[in-house]
Amino acid sequence: MSIAKMISAHPDVAGNLNEPLALAVRHAMFCAAICTSCADACLAEKMVEQLRQCIRSCLDCADVCDATFRLATRRAGNNEVLLEEMLQVCITACDICAEECERHAGMHEHCRICAQMCRECARDCRAAYETFH
Amino acid sequence: MSIAKMISAHPDVAGNLNEPLALAVRHAMFCAAICTSCADACLAEKMVEQLRQCIRSCLDCADVCDATFRLATRRAGNNEVLLEEMLQVCITACDICAEECERHAGMHEHCRICAQMCRECARDCRAAYETFH
Amino acid sequence: MSIAKMISAHPDVAGNLNEPLALAVRHAMFCAAICTSCADACLAEKMVEQLRQCIRSCLDCADVCDATFRLATRRAGNNEVLLEEMLQVCITACDICAEECERHAGMHEHCRICAQMCRECARDCRAAYETFH
Amino acid sequence: MSIAKMISAHPDVAGNLNEPLALAVRHAMFCAAICTSCADACLAEKMVEQLRQCIRSCLDCADVCDATFRLATRRAGNNEVLLEEMLQVCITACDICAEECERHAGMHEHCRICAQMCRECARDCRAAYETFH
Q1: What ipTM was assigned to the predicted interfaces of this complex?
Q2: Which of C106, D33, D64, D73 has CA atoms 20 to 30 A from the CA of D98?
């Protein structure tokens, strides 16, 4: 289940892996899953009416991370211009979601985990973005 | 099956619909579907090895359009900052995909339709973006 | 923006379109969008704590419809066994979501529209399924 | 980045985790990513015209795994009937994709990894399915 090993086996990569990008792929994939779970956990909380913005931010972040990890996985042909823009949007989505989840992190363990995941994903997307500059 | 009618029924919209945004939602949804179909049609062409970049661009564009129409559909809470960035990436994805598909439009009807769809989607995302400025 | 016209342009379809399947693709695509919108509209309602199951059903139905329309769009190679099973799950998802949304259709216009969309999508998936038998 | 830990933090789970289901979620998530990568790697191979069915199976399997892991992640409200059907479709998708990838596993390392991932995912979905019976 190693994303890095999988992308290394790509004929156009041939062992010459962009490691920061592979890490961003892995964490964007996880972040999409964790945000999907956090939205659902928030929905089940008694105080759900106070968690509307949090659910919204989590669902948006899950969608953006999902698109990001798919684009960043593909190595056939070329899409560098688009990938760079997508990484930037992913950073924005993760920062917004982390900020919102951090407001509830003291009360809800799922928000604490989700905020931490979003911060990691944003950091890794930044590192991946820098490999193109 | 009217997306605009559906979003109008949202409690936070209450009839006060952003029409250009609703049109962008509708066309990003269609563009995701058309690009998914074009990638698959290209894969079935005899000259598939000359359509690698086209398949790649179509798959990327489908993913970006998918994320865009989902984000742009949601009206609960707030996500304007993220939505604006996402619309911009969608414009980039559609322009890139349209340019690539236009190169094969003379030979492949699916590429001709896909290029046209991408141009429409890009135009509508630009119009939606402008409603925030 | 005609899905049927697009799939007709596929080299392996060559004008010999499975019309009920193309209609199921179109409506599964719309149903994914309408369910995404209904989940978000429910989230914004004052009585959100009474709409948890509805939001859950809409999100699940959106995911299932999304996978269904993507699979049913592809005509390269073969996947009939998988497609038939997927159509069946889509019927189940749409029936469950319709039943839940119908419970709130009197109070919420978005639930009324969503229930109607789900019933149409289930009906079209049944018709598409029958073309394989 | 522990999916199991995240789902355990859900208010309706409250530490009472369905471990086989959490493992199925994790592996369906990974399988979606690996299949997305394998489709793209196949597309870049010189012998792409011999890998059409493999690309098709990988894209279908990625879509099904994606829907499965999202549905199986959600614990708010109830969706057991739908989840069981979805797990069955995921088993079918993974078995079909594994069988196809195994045909190319001797030549393409990415197909070997993908086949192995699909077999693991199918096995875990079966184990998760059995927890409901």
Answers
A1: 0.96
A2: D73
